[in-house]
Amino acid sequence: FILKLFEIFFYFIRDRDRISKGGWWISEKDFSEQSLDEFMRVQKSMVVSHFLVYKTFASHLSNEEGSTYTFITGGSGESNEAGEPFEPKASLISASSPAVYGLVYAARNEFRAKKNLHICELRISIWVKKLDDETLDQSNEHLVGNNYIGKFATKICQKHGNGTYKIKTRSEGNKVYETM
Which DSSP letter does residue 133 get? Predict the structure, then answer.
């Protein structure tokens, strides 16, 4: 999945745009049964990885007028319409995702006054398959192919503005895409 996304991104994205994406974690254990080591491992893979990639590229990108840095995050730090967690078995991701949202906020605030680096977030709350979207059932609102997400990332970089774009369903994603 990630390799396919990077192929799409680097085909369309100039040298002054960068994108970072988190990962996924799931367990059969309850949140309170997780060890501190497992909690720290998930924090490191989710939060620290985003921070390090951002730290690596932000100073370079900020020297290029009109550059964009996009965080690709997930919706597991949010609750659904009923107030339930995104996925109960993904409790450690639900605990670390808000920290990544905080990184986006801090990065955006860092460059808000300077206006030479745009900080965006693409928050994906649907399942993404390692397949071309055209091969999937288009009526399934909660499943898309990797190239469906790729088109958002390239459009964000071409837009050069700050913002958080949330995709919770296919039809909602289509509306977001049309307004970008």
Answer: G
pTM of the model: 0.78
The percentage of the chain sitting over the pLDDT mark of 70, rounded to a whole number, equals 78
Least confident of 22-36, 76-90, 96-110: 76-90
**What is the widest separation between alpha-carbon atoms in the chain?**
48
Alpha-helical (H) ranges within the chain are 2-12, 36-43, 49-61, 91-112, 146-159, 170-179
CA torsion, ordered 127, 131, 134, 139, to nearest 10 deg: -30
Express each pLDDT in 31-87 by its tens digit: 888 889 888 888 888 888 888 888 888 888 888 888 888 888 888 777 665 556 556
Please identify which residue in the block is written with the tokens 């049309």.
178
Distance CA 104, CA 24 (A): 18
Q: What is the CA radius of gyration of the chain?
A: 16
Cα 179 from Cα 169, distance rounded (Å)? 16
In the chain the first and final C-alpha atoms are separated, in Å, by 24
- Per the rule left: phi > 0, alpha: psi between -120 and 50, beta: everything else, 160 is left
Closest by CA to 20, choosing from 112, 122, 117, 106, is 122
